[in-house]
Amino acid sequence: MLMMQKEVHNLFEKFQVSSNIIKGERQALDPGFIPDRLPHREKEAEQIAGILAPALDGKRPSNIIIFGKPGVGKTSVVRFVEREASRIIDTRFNLKMKIVDINCGVVDSSYGVLLSIGNALLGDWEDKLPFTGWPLDKMFNVVNERITNFGGIVIVVMDEIDRLVRKSGDSVIYQLLRINETSSKGKISIVGISNDLRFTDYLDPRVKSRLIEETIVFHPYNATQIYDILRDRSLFSGILESIDDSSIRLCAAIAAQDQGDARRAIDLLRISVEIAEMKQFSKITDDIIYEAKQKLERDIVSETISTLPLHSKLTLLSAVLMDDIKKGSKTTMGEVYDLYSKAAQRIGVSSLTPRRIADIVGELSNLGILESQVQSFGRYGRTTMISVNYDPGRIKEILMNDEMIGILQDVKPSQKSLTES
Ligand SMILES: Nc1ncnc2c1ncn2[C@@H]1O[C@H](COP(=O)(O)OP(=O)(O)O)[C@@H](O)[C@H]1O
Ligand SMILES: [Mg+2]
Which of 37, 137, 170, 311 is deepest in the core (most CB within 10 A)? Predict the structure, then answer.
């Protein structure tokens, strides 16, 4: 009622998000936010700083490879260390040290990597390198020359380096590290961050022996550690009055069960806040947290499915449609394959081999969307039985959003392949 009597001061006032939950910085709950302190990662930050410290005396630090599952703080810790290093670099005019940050999730080509380094070492009078078009060796020569002219230590941070290697191989890493052997002025160190623990298996032995000088593994957080992280975030965002300590612990416990991923934990907290705001509650209850957990799971599944490659989507669609037709009894790999080929043909792409589709079914099972089980028929052989592990209607809905898959609304298996089984 009071609201109605209030004078309107600004046209936009009533559109501004007001919150009865958040009393501090909303951005402290954003996925990209890096706080000023990172609880339970002090040791790792110090370890990295210790390895990089020689750069402050003009000496080349060892390369570092950092491993750990998603959400364990790898990116945040390295950013934090970079921020601290930059503070020193900014105050020492004669310190020749440069940090180049490359997110290989986005920049995953050799050209892109060279471009990022080359442009970061641009002198005042030099032009930016062309976004595309130069041969790789010309790009490399320019980068090499710039590092030599710079004459100091260049630390190249390659976040998600496993993606670069998977997409474009490791030749650019080899070339960059070779600079240290050929140039006596200007040196380079690489800090590589990888979610994939086995990524070094893909490296050429010559790259492997040069790249891996120091290895640091980040372990998943346990519930107590996640609690401390969430408590900090609750403090910064000013929601402590609106959430009980036991509810923060609940969020932490849920996230700890799920791989000890701090990102998921913060997502869970943020979605809980959003639900409470939407309901105009002044308190985040446990019920809201469970609701947020469900929403988060739905979001993750939908993101996973909608970003699958085309043939995986076709395979999944076939499994879902077969599941619907067979009404409860399991589907065989052969049936899924037949419908898959038909679907592929319908949209005009050539189908992959049964072997590849079996692999894809395996991948979809690893993601927890399908379940596959090998069933033995004694001397008659074996077959893989496939069932759908997640709401089939929902999967179909997500798949139908794909432009190419959308036209397959009514694709059906041929009568022949059904009667055969
Ligand atoms: N020790 C920590 N303290 C505070 N926040 C953290 C901590 N570790 C991770 N986070 C937060 O969790 C999220 C994921 O962390 P991130 O560094 O991106 O993980 P990774 O790079 O290992 O996938 C980020 O929002 C980050 O701020
Ligand atoms: Mg990361």
Answer: 170
Give, for ligand 1, the residue of 43, 263, 270 to mutate: max count of ligand atoms closer than 8 Å to Cβ: 263
Q: Is pLDDT of 45 > 50?
A: yes
- Mean per-residue pLDDT of the chain: 91
16 alpha carbon – ligand 2 mean position (Å): 32
User: For 74-87, what is each residue's pLDDT tens digit?
Assistant: 999 999 999 999 99
Percentage, residues of the chain above pLDDT 90: 74
CATH topology of domain 221-305: Helicase, Ruva Protein; domain 3 (1.10.8)
Q: Residue length, the chain?
A: 421
DSSP, collapsed to helix, strand or coil, labels residue 221 as coil
Let me know: does 374 contact 384? Beta carbons within 8 Å. Answer: yes
CB atoms within 10 A of CB 46: 12
Question: Dihedrals φ, ψ of 239, to 5°?
Answer: -110, 5
What are the extents of the domains in the chain?
42-217, 221-305, 308-420
Contacts 24+ apart (CB under 8 A), 196-199: 196/162, 197/67, 199/161, 199/162, 199/165, 199/166
Q: For a substitution probing ligand 1, which of 75, 76, 259 has the most ligand atoms within 8 Å of its CB?
A: 76
Residues 142-169 have a mean pLDDT of 95
Q: Is 308-420 in CATH node 1.10.10.10?
A: yes
In the predicted model, what is the mean pLDDT of residues 280-288?
A: 94
DSSP string, 105-162: TT--SHHHHHHHHHHHT--TTPPPPPSS-S-HHHHHHHHHHHHHHH-SEEEEEEETHH
Dihedral angle over CA of 398, 404, 409, 410, nearest 10: -150
Give dist(CA 223, CA 291) in Å, integer: 20
Residue 53: DSSP 8-state: G
- What lies within 8 Å, CB to CB, of 352 at 6+ separation is 311, 344, 360
